[in-house]
Amino acid sequence: MPSHSPDFERLRSVPLELTVLLGSRKLTIGELLELGEGSIVELDRAADGPVDLLAGGTVIAQGEIIAVEEHFGIRITDVRAQA
Q1: Residue 64: which CATH number?
Q2: pLDDT in single tens digits along all 83 residues of the chain
Q3: pTM to 2 decimals?
Q4: Is the dihedral of CA 81, 45, 54, 58 positive or negative?
Q5: Residue 20 Cα to chain centre, angstroms
Q6: Partners of 79 in the beta sheet?
């Protein structure tokens, strides 16, 4: 593990929410109002395609959805280079 400055080490315990983005879809308000239980919203990605992992609204990695016991998880397949 690389050595970090003491200031950086304090940041390691700061909570950060991660979001997994499966895809997106633009709808009109009318289309949105027509949605109900059982409706299907098709997304802009293939079912077997990679998903994005976001931290603070920024894509930091991509991966694939996996099942871990009774929960979903993400297996990281690509970590974005730092800017």
Answers
A1: 2.30.330.10
A2: 556 677 778 888 889 999 999 999 999 999 999 999 999 999 999 988 999 999 989 999 999 999 999 999 999 999 997 75
A3: 0.73
A4: positive
A5: 2
A6: 61
Following DSSP, what letter does each residue of 58-79 receive, concatenated?
EEEEEEEEEEETTEEEEEEEEE
Query: What domain range includes position 21?
Result: 16-79
The answer to whether residue 25 is domain-embedded is yes
Residue 40 lies in a domain: yes
Q: How many domains does the chain have?
A: 1
Report d(CA 3, CA 69) in Å as an integer.
Answer: 35
Q: Which DSSP category does 49 fall into?
A: S
In a domain? residue 7: no
